[in-house]
Specification:
Structural class: mainly beta
Distance between the termini: 12 Å
Shape: globular
Number of helices: 4
Largest sheet: 13 strands, antiparallel
Order of helices and strands: EEEEHEEEEEEEHHHEEEEEEEEEEE
Number of strands: 22
Number of domains: 1
Helix content: under 10%
Radius of gyration: 19 Å
Length: 330
């Protein structure tokens, strides 16, 4: 029996090639002024609603009409002058009615994009400086017209204009127009209506309201994740991953590891690192990640994956850097 290992997944079941910058206006109960926060995030969405017979190609996925996806990993973070560090984790577990999801409504039959995309999001937001964690009872609904990224997407991106060498290697052919991605949706998602936030400690206590937010979905830029090695050790799948800074300025980055489907994370789930400017001796950082079967009696399948994501905590979309890879079992 072959030994289980991780590989960087290219499965069309998952969508990992985009980062997300979010401008959010939050009004806290009793405060005179609202707070404007910019959060950077990455996540993985999946077409794998049918876990027993997942699609293998986009030809199988391309809908004749409306289709749905599930968020299987989705995190945002920020450092606000008013609030300090902020961490947002979206609900992605099981078949709960508060699981985050999205729906694509294609403009043309048989094509995934362009499409109207509707995100329905449930999350927890922790603000350590305030000693609170809040959550939403009603969904945060975001809507956009999403198109497939192409070379113009990169040419219009001020980050790319400023430094075209900072595109992750696997996306460079898209940036130059040599190839077009099969499915890389980009667009600006607008919040439909205000959403109340409640204290996790006291769920009846309303703490704040998000009354305006825009999520800018754009290709990854500025950072690159690479799988260095992987092995199976004591019923765990262990991998070493390298984070590289592709930009000309030093970055403080924040990384996370999530398990998907049958894998649970056994390594540190979150952390941070300082990366020097591009090509410097300190421009790279390595971390070990690992996962174990939730039920060791069940065999690992092609949907059992670890997500590794990394971002900075930017002040605006113009200095946002991110990358994300999916490690699946061979």
């Amino acid at each position: 029996m072959p030994e289980d290992r991780f590989q960087v997944s290219q499965s069309p079941v998952f969508q990992v090639e985009k980062g997300k910058g979010c401008n959010a206006m939050i009004a806290f109960e009793g405060a005179q002024d609202s707070v404007n926060v910019f959060l950077g995030g990455v996540g993985v969405a999946s077409f794998s609603n049918d876990r027993t017979n997942p699609p293998q190609t986009f030809a199988q996925i391309a809908p004749q009409g409306t289709t749905s996806m599930e968020w299987v990993s989705n995190r945002f973070s920020a450092t606000s002058a008013a609030l300090g560090d902020i961490n947002v984790t979206f609900q992605t577990i099981g078949n709960s009615p508060t699981r985050s999801s999205l729906v694509l409504i294609p403009e043309r039959s048989g094509n995934l994009l362009p499409a109207r995309m509707v995100n329905t999001l449930y999350f927890e937001m922790s603000i350590p400086s305030q000693g609170i964690t809040v959550f939403n009872k009603d969904p945060l609904v975001l809507e956009s017209r999403s198109i497939n990224a192409n070379a113009e997407t990169f040419r219009l991106d001020p980050r790319f204009v400023r430094d075209p060498e900072a595109v992750p290697r696997r996306l460079q052919a898209f940036a130059t127009g040599e190839r077009e991605p099969v499915f890389l949706p980009v667009g600006n998602h607008q919040q439909r209506r205000p959403v109340f936030l409640y204290s996790k400690e006291n769920p009846d206590q309303r703490v704040a309201t998000i009354f305006d937010s825009t999520v800018h979905v754009i290709p990854h830029y500025g950072l690159e994740l690479a799988l260095i090695s992987s092995s199976r050790v004591d019923e765990q799948i262990v991998a070493e991953v390298e984070v590289e800074n592709l930009t000309q300025v030093a970055q403080e980055v924040h990384w996370f590891v999530d398990g998907i489907h049958n894998l649970t994370v056994t390594s540190h789930p979150v952390g941070s690192a300082y990366l020097g400017a591009r090509n410097g001796a300190d421009s790279r950082f390595r971390l070990k990640v690992s996962g174990r079967r939730k039920n060791p009696d069940e065999p690992l399948g092609q949907l059992d994956c670890l997500v590794v994501g990394v971002t900075n905590r930017p002040e605006s979309i113009d200095d946002f850097v991110s990358d994300c890879i999916l490690l699946s079992v061979e």
